[in-house]
Amino acid sequence: MERRVVVTGIGLVCGVGNTTEEVWKNLLAGKSGIRRITQFDASQFACQIAAEVKDFDPLKFVEKKELKKMGRFIYLALGAADEAMISSGLKITPDNAERVGVHIGSGIGGFDIIEREHLNLVKGGPRKISPFFIPGAIVNLAAGHVSMRFGAKGPNEATATACTTSAHSIGDSFRIIQHGDADAMIAGGSEAAITPMGVGGFAAMRALSTRNGDPEKASRPWDTARDGFVMGEGAGILILEELEFARQHGAKILAEVVGYGMSGDAYHITQPAPEHEGGFRVMRNTLKDAKVTPTDIGYVNAHGTSTPIGDTLEAHAIRNFFGEHKVPVSSTKSMTGHLLGGAGGLEAGITVLALRDQILPPTINLENQDPDTMNMDFVPNHARKAQVEYALSNSFGFGGTNGALLFRRWSE
């Protein structure tokens, strides 16, 4: 008999809030977290806006002397993981430690540490490079620190699949539990790439919005005036547990994970394949895994980054896949910005909350819908009550890597 996997905890940190419930409340209110960049002087950059995490105190999770040993993405992951663990009620003990694992990824890792230590090298030579440079920057150290904080001795992994990273982390954790290699996983992703090289690099690709004078209106998926994505930072962590394991410790179950799909475009380093056929296939694979049909799906949290090409192609993939079934679709990146490797974890958590509360978060800033998508429902500008049994979360990344997660509303 296949092992069932449920979500028992959620930890979210992003530009619209530092706790799960704060994030959710602000998303339902349609509040944008995008402002002018404060972490460095961006006045000479083409893009000067981002969705920064504000007023986050890492000293709640990390000793002051330890901060210099870790990139910002690590302590954001620790904060999200801490909240997720508390909300799940999961206690790791010597008896179960080897059955609890961690799978937390990052698309880039410690960009802030890399830039800082490169500056030290240029200014002072190799003797000025910190001995904590490598462990502070490499992608798997978020998972490493989380495992050490909670004593999780089961599988310990990290993915780095661009903007699909944390969807893959959660999906792979789902498989790990299904296959019996763990009973619980702390899974998701974290990103903190709002740095001069991070913003400058994406701006050099002409991927970012330059609506610097009106930051809160800059991320506008499927709107005719969209001009690129807005970077965000933060972390999204879910606690996944095998159903009976969760019941044994009295966990409050939030949703069930019922499907996971992957695909590759094999087409282009940054652009989706024509008609986003890779996105079409990943949705098909996910629903096949769950043994459900498109008409069962009541909501899609889209990748929806606010890029001219990507939004249109994802809309086409959704329309082609769902056919006559007009499924509600929204992009919460309109408020949170794009967390890159952390996006899938954040949006998986949001999708679970939509199922929990039977409310669909909106796509804000959708004032003039792209004529090529006019037959689609993007939940424009206002949250909406709905009856939803199954909800899908899409994630796509550079290199043509695609992932999708399907959740079912929990009912005994």
Please describe what this structure looks like.
The chain has 412 residues and is of the alpha/beta class. It folds into two domains: 5-248, Peroxisomal Thiolase, Chain A, domain 1, CATH 3.40.47.10; 259-409, Thiolase/Chalcone synthase (Peroxisomal Thiolase, Chain A, domain 1, 3-Layer(aba) Sandwich), CATH 3.40.47.10. 33% of the residues lie in helices and 18% in strands. It has a ten-stranded mixed sheet with strand order 5-4-6-7-1-8-14-13-9-10, sandwiched between helices. The chain has a two-stranded antiparallel ribbon with strand order 2-3. Strand 9 (297-301), helix 11 (308-322) and strand 10 (329-330) form a beta-alpha-beta unit. Helix 7 (165-178) crosses helix 13 (343-357). The longest helix is centred in the first third of the chain and has 17 residues, at 72-88. The model has no long low-confidence stretch (mean pLDDT 97).
Name of the CATH first level of the largest domain: Alpha Beta
What is the N-to-C order of secondary-structure elements (H for helix, E for strand)?
Answer: EHEEHHEHHHEHEHEHEHEHEHHEEEE
Q: How would the global form be characterised?
A: globular
Structural class: alpha/beta
Q: Write down how many β-strands occur, each being a DSSP E stretch of 2 or more residues.
A: 14
- Strand-residue fraction? 15-25%
Order of strands in the sheet with most strands: 5-4-6-7-1-8-14-13-9-10
> Radius of gyration, Cα only, in angstroms?
20 Å
Going by CATH, what is the homologous superfamily of the largest domain? Thiolase/Chalcone synthase
Tally of contiguous helical segments: 13
- Unreliable segments of 5+ consecutive residues: none
List the domain count as a whole number.
2
Q: Mean pLDDT, rounded to whole units? A: 97
Quaternary organization:
single chain
